[in-house]
UniProtKB/TrEMBL annotation:
Protein species of origin: Peribacillus muralis
Keywords: Hydrolase
Domain AB hydrolase-1 residue range list: 23-257
Family matches, as Gene3D superfamilies: alpha/beta hydrolase
InterPro entries membership: AB_hydrolase_1 (IPR000073), AB_hydrolase_fold (IPR029058), AB_hydrolase_sf (IPR050266)
GO cellular component: membrane
Protein name: Alpha/beta hydrolase
Molecular function as annotated in GO: hydrolase activity
């Protein structure tokens, strides 16, 4: 296994394959790089493809501090900078989108070729002026309680809600294993932080090409979230995956991979042209 030391006591697991322009896949809350298993063989044919486990997630070590989106973005920046990666493509799914946006907010887009945002809102919280938010305070409190007292059954239901069709036994088993790796204390901490971050004011300042990938099935995130992002992020493109819910990269992997590839190649062509 390959690890990157962000700082003393913080080790991030990553998997890397291929050569060329770096493309980094960033997972959602409680998830891991394993969810991008259908992207590594495809993109590594033409890109330096990196699957990264965020702090305390997946095979990265458990750290009982720094479990916030802003720190995850700092970890990402350290990973990119210390490994001297240039002109990177950032793919952020769910909470991973927040990490991408916070990276751009803190460090700018000078070293970012483009971003791909997969099924996320500008904020998960249902603010008074943001009715499409996923969580109100009551829901967030209920989720925090479930994580502390009833995690496995809760996450089994949560995982099922991420897909249009019922999960197979094998997929359900490995996904549950991934999302229960971290202690409940860390799971609660990052759930709270990622649920209340708000990037609505930052969206118009994003200055890199952005592909927005959303599932048509609205069990987790509404299509309206993608439309809202498309309206407010300059130079963005919205693609709806008709047979997907929260995970088009797994549910329609071939179409997702080709869509992202076409987006990247178009950007490269325009840059070179």
């Amino acid at each position: 296994m390959t690890f990157f030391d962000v700082e003393e006591g913080v080790r991030l697991f990553y998997e890397e394959k291929g050569q060329g322009r770096p493309i980094i896949f960033i997972h959602g809350v409680w998830m891991s790089s394993r969810f991008f298993t259908k992207q590594l063989p495809y993109f590594s044919q033409n890109y330096r493809t990196i699957l990264l486990d965020l702090r305390s997630h997946g095979k990265s070590n458990e750290v009982h501090y720094g479990n916030t989106v802003s720190v995850y973005a700092k970890d990402l920046h350290a990973f990119i900078s210390k490994r001297k990666l240039k002109d990177v493509i950032l793919v952020g799914w769910s909470m991973g989108a927040f990490v991408v946006w916070d990276y751009l907010k803190q460090f700018g887009g000078g070293n970012v070729h483009s971003t791909v945002i997969v099924d996320e809102l500008a904020s998960d919280f249902k603010w008074p002026d943001f009715e499409i938010g996923a969580f109100d305070m009551g829901t967030l409190i209920a989720f925090m309680t479930e994580i502390q007292t009833n995690r496995t059954p809760f996450l089994q239901t949560f995982l099922s809600s991420m897909f249009k069709n019922e999960l197979s036994g094998e997929d359900a088993d490995w996904m549950l294993e991934e999302v229960t790796r971290m202690p409940e204390s860390i799971a609660s901490s990052i759930l709270f932080d990622q649920s209340i971050v708000d990037y609505r004011d930052f969206l118009p300042k994003i200055n890199v090409p952005t592909l927005l990938c959303f599932g048509r099935q609205e069990k987790v995130i509404p299509v309206a979230a993608g439309e809202h992002l498309h309206e407010h992020i300059p130079n963005s493109q919205l693609v709806i995956f008709e047979d997907s819910c929260h995970c088009p990269f797994l549910e329609e992997s071939d179409l997702f991979n080709q869509t992202v590839e076409d987006f990247i190649q178009k950007g490269i062509g325009e840059t070179e042209g």
